[in-house]
Structures are given as structure tokens and as C-alpha cells.
Amino acid sequence: MQGYLNEERRGAVLRSLRTDEGTLSRDYLAAARTVLRELVAMPDLVQRLPLERKAGGYTRNLLAGNEAVSVWAIVWAQGATTCIHDHHCSCCFGVVAGTITETWYRAIDVARAVPTEEQERQAGYVGCMLPSGPNIHRMRNLGAGDVITIHIYGFDHEAHASSIETEYTAVGG
After folding, report:
1. Where is the binding site for Fe cation, in residues?
2. pTM, entire model
3. At 109, which CATH number?
4. pLDDT one-digit tens code per residue, 11-25
């Protein structure tokens, strides 16, 4: 799947994300924001990629990755939703096309959480968080068409299947 971006562009993206402090630093978050701003500013490039799609769900497409970071294009079909979750690594994302709804939660115990805030993230939005959280959230496509987002995670895609550390069940809201 890493063939979606040519080798030169993949190398440039991965080099720009490398910091002396690793993926748990403010420098890394600044670098990830810069990369995401560049990618969301080129929606035609991303939308022309041969991205996999799944009716009713979301599909992760690996764009680039190494032992420290992975960059994914995620296509969200109408109605697609993640579980309520927190990450084991840094998590940055930008919206390329459409609107994704992000709901934030507060844990009330190790398995349950209550909603605290909900935001519609529109094309051009970029956000980043370190795993110092908790950063408990859920993402959903409540619109009529596909949404495309780019995610940069501070993990090796070959060592971990996902960036999700903990899943929660919603209580209230």
C-alpha cells in the first residue's frame, strides 16, 4: 500500500517527521502539523490516490511508514464510526474532504466514558495530541458522502496493528 505516494514524496514526508526528541515531543507535533497542513492543502492529490473503501465503514490506507511513524489516508463511508478509544501513541489528523464529527469523552472507570464535547471537523482542519492524555474520542461520518482524512501516528505499523490502546463504552449522552 505504500505505493500510493511515490518514493520521493514518502521519503520527504518521513524525513520531515523525524525529530531528535522522537514522537513524544512538541517538535514532533509541530512537524506533523506542517506535514498535515501541506497534505490537506492538496485535496486533489489525495483524492486521486487509489484508496480502498468499505461501504458503511472506514478503511485505512498506508501512505508511508517506518519504525517511528505511520501515515494513513482513511476513507470514511457514510455512517462509518470508530469505537470510543484512547491511543498508545501520538495521534495527529487532518481532514482532506468532507466533515468528520469528533466526540470527546471523559473516563469514569477503566471501561466506561461520558461524552464531554463534540465538534465537526471540516476540510482543512488539523489537530494533534500526545499520548499523555487521556485523549478519549470517537470519530464518525454523519454526512451523506465519503470523508477523507490523513492520520499520522507515532508507531511502527509493522509492530502494531493499530494506534488504539484502550476502548470504552459510552455512558449517558
Report:
1. 85, 87, 137
2. 0.89
3. 2.60.120.10
4. 677 777 776 666 667
